[in-house]
Amino acid sequence: MRNISEKKRIVIKLGTSTIAHKTGKLNIRRMNSLVRVISDLHNSGREIIIVSSGAVGLGAGKIGLPEKPRDTRTKQAVAAIGQCELMHIYDDMFEKYSVTVAQILLTKTIIENPNHCSNFRSTIERLSLMGVIPIVNENDTIAIDELELEIGENDSLSALVAELSNADLLLILSDIDGLYDDDPHKNPDAKPIYYVDKITPEIERAAGGTDSKLGTGGMTTKISAAKIAADAGIDMVIMNGKNPDLLYDLFENKEIGTFFKAPTK
């Protein structure tokens, strides 16, 4: 049974395919809708933490590159440009709803250091008390290997953030409605899976070929995130981010996306 309406602290992962067009440039209409709905959920008393992709793509667009760079050093440079642009956009959009946001950049070194993790938790708690929405991303400009998937990608990062922040729910917005028994991009007869109480080899096989063409992650990385969340006792939902208003239905316990139930500890 879903109990989404009871969740208070929610980590929302916004992937590149959710916030950007296929061109890699920002989907302004969808971003406006996302910010509006997230602000409303925040105003209802929920504590929201956002894990956002998009810095490299925005940086490349900002300086007029025809496509995302392939070499690591250029990725680092455009990530520095794009991260500034990304936070400016979030700050401007959330300000319209009188919501303040804060930036937190993480690396694998930070996540693996107990003292740094404690500092992260303390910052999250204080920002929560202040009514601020943290926006988290990997620090691509500092840790060279991050861009080569050292942590994994932002699906895994969002699960680690959920664990570190003691979240009640991890919500991954993607370009697909949820988990299917086959790749729906290739098989029109693929059937949706609405509820997963255990990640079995069959579930992993079903996720194997379902990849986004725009972001760095696919369904396989989302299953990895679900494992991290489950081990931490955190429920997770994968849903399509193309219609942000469906978040209202989700938090009314309607059958939206795929719900991964964490085992009871």
Structure summary:
The chain has 265 residues and is an alpha/beta fold. It is 41% helix and 17% strand.
Question: How are the SSEs placed, and which strands pair?
Answer:
Layout: E1 9-14, H1 16-19, H2 28-43, E2 47-52, H3 55-62, H4 72-95, E3 101-106, H5 108-111, H6 114-129, E4 133-138, H7 154-164, E5 169-174, E6 179-180, E7 192-193, E8 195-196, H8 201-207, H9 219-231, E9 235-240, H10 246-250, E10 258-260
Parallel strand pairs: 1-2, 1-5, 2-4, 3-4, 5-9, 8-10
Antiparallel strand pairs: 6-7, 9-10
Helix pairs in contact: 3-4, 7-9
Which tags fit this structure?
alpha/beta; 8-stranded mixed sheet; two-stranded antiparallel ribbon; 10 helices; globular
Percent strand equals: 15-25%
First-residue to last-residue Cα separation: 17 Å
Radius of gyration: 17 Å
Tally the helices: 10
Shape: globular
Mean pLDDT: 88
Helix proportion range? 40-55%
Order of helices and strands: EHHEHHEHHEHEEEEHHEHE
Low-confidence parts: 146-150, 210-217
Sketch the major β-sheet: 8 strands, mixed
| Number of E strands | 10
Structural class, from helix and strand content? alpha/beta
Q: For the largest beta sheet, what order do the strands appear in spatially?
A: 3-4-2-1-5-9-10-8
Describe the protein:
This protein is α/β, with parallel strands linked by helices and 265 residues long. Helices cover 41% and strands 17% of the residues. It has ten helices and ten strands. The strands form two sheets. An eight-stranded mixed sheet has the order 3-4-2-1-5-9-10-8, with helices on both faces. A two-stranded antiparallel ribbon has the order 6-7. α3 (55-62) packs across α4 (72-95) and α7 (154-164) packs parallel to α9 (219-231). The chain is globular, with a radius of gyration of 17 Å. 41% of the residues are buried. Residues 146-150 and 210-217 have low confidence and may be disordered.
